[in-house]
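Backbone-to-sequence.
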């Protein structure tokens, strides 16, 4: 295996664009990047290394076909997508082989993965929108909001840092800033 393949984990967009452009190296890098995660999943759940290779191959084919179809939208990290596909494929295979007696509740305890992927994707979208709104907010509001909600500074500390006459004035300013932030957040599409 060449040094180039091992050096870095490819970005999600590199993989997607690589597959779209029939890049053999992108697919090779994808194989190297996430196989250990899938191997661990399969080994820990009654499988072998060969099972892991088969499942991973199937998941890559699923990804490849979705991307080539042209309507693939990555709403989570590629790693999460691959994990969820592999997990579903492995559960299906276990069920077919009756290795789990048809009772797969153990796996379901820690995730209906697609639901989690969708929820995480929605949180990522909301977080990105909030970051964007915060950037548009401008100063001093951006710093006041960050100090209070992210850095957990008290209104008294904010008052002193911005030179307000008292904490109530700082609280009023924070409220106005929060209203502007909400407006900016909800104006985004």
């Amino acid at each position: 295996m060449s040094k180039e393949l091992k050096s870095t984990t490819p970005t999600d967009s590199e993989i997607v664009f690589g597959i779209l452009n029939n890049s053999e190296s992108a697919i090779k890098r994808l194989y190297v990047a996430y196989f250990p995660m899938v191997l661990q999943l399969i080994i820990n759940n009654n499988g072998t290394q060969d099972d892991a290779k088969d499942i991973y191959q199937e998941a890559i084919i699923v990804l490849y076909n979705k991307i080539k179809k042209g309507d693939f939208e990555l709403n989570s990290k590629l790693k999460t997508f691959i994990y969820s596909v592999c997990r579903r494929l492995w559960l299906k295979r276990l069920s077919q082989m009756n290795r789990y007696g048809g009772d797969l509740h153990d796996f379901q305890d820690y995730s209906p993965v697609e639901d989690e992927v969708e929820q995480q994707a929605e949180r990522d979208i909301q977080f990105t929108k909030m970051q964007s709104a915060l950037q548009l907010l401008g100063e001093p509001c951006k710093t006041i909001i960050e100090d209070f909600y992210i850095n957990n500074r008290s209104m008294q500390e904010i008052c002193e840092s911005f030179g307000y006459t008292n904490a109530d004035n700082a609280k009023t300013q924070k409220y106005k800033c929060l209203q502007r932030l909400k407006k900016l957040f909800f104006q985004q599409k």
